[in-house]
Please model this.
Amino acid sequence: MTQREKMLAGELYDCGDPELLARWHLAKDLVLAYNTMASGDAAAREKLLAQLLGGRGRSLWITPPFYVDYGENIYFGDNCEVNMNCTFLDDNKIVIGDHALIAPNVQIYTAFHPTDAAERFGAPRADGSFAFCRTRTAPVVVGDNVWIGGGAILLPGVTIGSNTVIGAGSVVTHDIPANVVAVGSPCRVLRRNG
Model:
């Protein structure tokens, strides 16, 4: 099993794997180009997003700056908007449904590390080179017609049901059902939506 396959399967994997690092660096270069290109050049933005993302529906709007780990593990449905300064750590799949609205400064994480420091870091390398800490992943899924408020953080493995609103500044630590308004840290259902 390759390190990429381990990463997507949620097993401990080596972030320093050459294949993973090559894609990581490519994604950083693509994001740098996206974040600095002329704001009105829609054709160039579309072309670049086609190279960066794993998949996307019609009518995707991402306001720069936008940050990713690999890019290729991010999938958007139709008619989605991502506002400025969002970070998607897509070490596993991030799947976002149709008509999603993602406010500024939202962070979506799929990567996490062992809580035990010895397991997380292991022994230093004999040659003194940088050793990435051990990492695992879990996918994040966002349903259709979801609004994620500014500054919200979605942790690895969560699913947000369709037609749900996540309040600004919330930390989503567990699944949130469909058709609700949920807020807080940790994020909790406040009321039914609609």
Summary: The chain has a mean pLDDT of 94.
